[in-house]
Amino acid sequence: MVLAFSCATQAQFCSLAYESVTTRRAADVVPAEICRSPHYTIDDSVTVRENTYAFRVDSELGYFETNSLTLLSIRLNEVATLAQAVDTFNQQNRKFGAKLRGAL
Fold first, then answer.
1. Which residue of 1, 26, 37, 98 lies most exposed, with the fewest beta carbons within 10 A?
2. What secondary structure, in 3-state letters, does 47-82 show?
3. Are 18 and 40 in contact (CB under 8 A)?
4. What is the Cα–Cα distance from 56 to 67, expressed in whole angstroms?
5. CA torsion, points 33, 53, 24, 10, in degrees to nearest 10?
């Protein structure tokens, strides 16, 4: 127990240069045209963790993080597909609602 207190505690809280988290701009990592959409926005600051990019995306469906370019591509495709499905549902709902208004 005494030995633990006599150890240099500074080493526990220092991080070496290779351990630091690096950041990049999203426009430098992915094509600029997919950084923004009517349905989502990719945060401009992209971190590099464990040799992969970590993206933060704010979408109509909520906020989420992805840990690779491949997963980002999949998630953005899912957001676009769900936005299209919601839009189609809303259009059909309006048409159905208009039919009911005259009948009720």
1. 1
2. EEECCEEEEEEEECCEEEEECCHHHHHHHHHHHHHH
3. no
4. 9
5. 160
Report yes or no on whether pTM surpasses 0.70.
no
Phi-psi sector, 42: left (phi>0), alpha (psi -120 to 50), beta? beta
Q: How many CB atoms lie within 10 A of CB 56?
A: 16
The residues, any chain, with a CB within 8 Å of residue 80's CB and separated by 6 or more, are: 37, 39
DSSP labels, 7-56: S-SHHHH---GGGSPEEEEHHHHS-GGGSB-SSEEE-SEEEEETTEEEEE
CB under 8 A, 24+ apart: contacts of 68-77: 69/29, 69/30, 72/30, 72/42, 76/34, 76/37, 76/40
What the block records as the tokens of 99 is 């039919």
